[in-house]
Amino acid sequence: MREVVIVDGVRTAVGRRKGTFTNYRPDELAAVVLEELVKRTGVDKAEVEDVILGCVTQSGEQCGNIARTAALIAGFPIHVPGVTIDRQCGSSQQAVHFASQAIASGDMDIVIAGGVESMTREPMFSNIGDAKPSSKLTEKYEIINQGLSSERMVKKWNLTRKELDQYSSDSHKKALEAIKNGHFKKEIIPVAIHQEDGSVKIFETDEGPRNGSTPEVLSQLKTVFDEAGVITAGNASQMSDGASAVMLMSQEKANQLGLRPKARIVARSVTGSDPTLMLTGPIEATRKVLLKAGLTIGDIDTYEVNEAFAQVPLVWLKETGADPKKLNPDGGAIALGHPLGATGTKLLVTLLNRLERTGSRYGLLAICEGMGMANATIIERID
Question: Where are the alpha helices (H) located in 250-342, listed in sequence order?
């Protein structure tokens, strides 16, 4: 198997739902990151062998294979194909896995993997409409929404509302500190937003983090899914708009092109988990990927575990014995937002840049996914 490397990655700043990206088409937003990625790497668009993008709500402007349309908008030659995939919240992380598998096997040399989601222009579940789950499925499993799954997780692991709100407040604090210290500046491409008055706004800072998200303020929010429960809008991820992508290639191809990769893919895993409890998958996915890599959780320098809801990383910490100080040190989706199809490579780009900034070696990414699944990825920084 050939070694797969990450040459570079880029993302947009994340916009709040009905925020800065309200009037920006998602196919055009995806094209922005594709263009920037080839610009940063200097790789000829014609040499890219596939564009794999994650997108969860494939309806409206996000239907019709947005990976292909975005590549064409970005000026890639017509011989460069594109494919859009949906592994729920881990869609763009799975895009990285598919791309790296193609490269490792020798089938391809250069692939772009990424994702896009406009939760403003194509609201969550708009691709489902009035469709109901098959009775053959509901006879076998209790199918409930993620909010109710979250309430059950909280009860199973004996977490309190206070713990969830404290974690959420900390996410905002860490994100605001990261923005203040310029931690995201290198990974974000500024996007020109044309205003109704004819002016142009340059959007380059994530707009989700809030200064006033203290535990006291968060404790006043009403629960969303269960009146007697603990899950609120404040301890769950934000609905968001954004795009992200990474360029992957074989180490041999990078050498041939004279490129200096930033990291290598060490190991990948994907797993299914209880479709009712749904959000516990990152625990087993982490165990699997560590086993594949021949590493322990103590060997990993920093982790990104997606904050779909606050209890997800908290339960992950309990079950893996990971170091809380290494977890999402720049904040997570509760503060920075969760543009579904884009989140995997968004977090990977942040992880990549953190390893480079701190001189650390190993990073781990794990994301829970709808209907009970999860992906995990371990990368190693290349000196």
Answer: 251-257, 281-293, 311-320, 333-336
How far is Cα of residue 136 from the mean position of the Cα atoms in its chain?
31
Spatial distance between the Cα atoms of 288 and 146, rounded to a whole number of angstroms: 24
Inform me whether the pLDDT recorded for 196 exceeds 90: no
Q: Which of 181, 189, 196, 186 is nearest to 242 (CA)?
A: 189
Residue 198: its pLDDT value, please? Answer: 87
Alpha carbon distance 101, 103 (integer Å): 5
CB 265 within 8 A of CB 113: no
- Is residue 100 within 8 Å of residue 268, measured between CB atoms? yes
Say if CB 340 and CB 241 are below 8 A apart: no
pLDDT digits 0-9 by tens, 109-130: 999 999 999 999 999 999 999 9
User: Do 348 and 248 contact (CB within 8 A), yes or no?
Assistant: no
Chain-centroid distance of CA 342 in Å reads 5
Distance CA 31, CA 238 (A): 23
| 336: three-class secondary structure by DSSP | helix
Structure tokens at 325: 């100080």
Give the number of C-alpha atoms closer than 13 A to the C-alpha of residue 380, restricted to the C-beta side. Answer: 13
0.85 surpassed by pTM: yes
User: Which residues are paired to 10 by β-bridges?
Assistant: 245
CA 192 from centroid of its chain's CA atoms = 23
pLDDT at 174: 98
Residues paired with residue 239 on neighbouring β-strands, in sequence order = 338
Lookup result for tokens 């977890």: 327
Over residues 22-48, the pLDDT tens digits come to 999 999 999 999 999 999 999 999 999
Structure tokens at 62: 């996000």
Residue 318: strand pairing partners: none
CB 365 within 8 A of CB 304: yes
Exposed (0-12), middle (13-18) or buried (19+): which is 47, by Cβ within 10 Å?
middle
Q: List the catalytic residues.
A: 89, 338, 368
The residue to which tokens 């590493």 are assigned: 295
Which is nearest to 338 in space by CA: 302, 296, 309? 309
Cα–Cα distance list, 31 to 35, 206, 273 (Å): 6, 19, 34
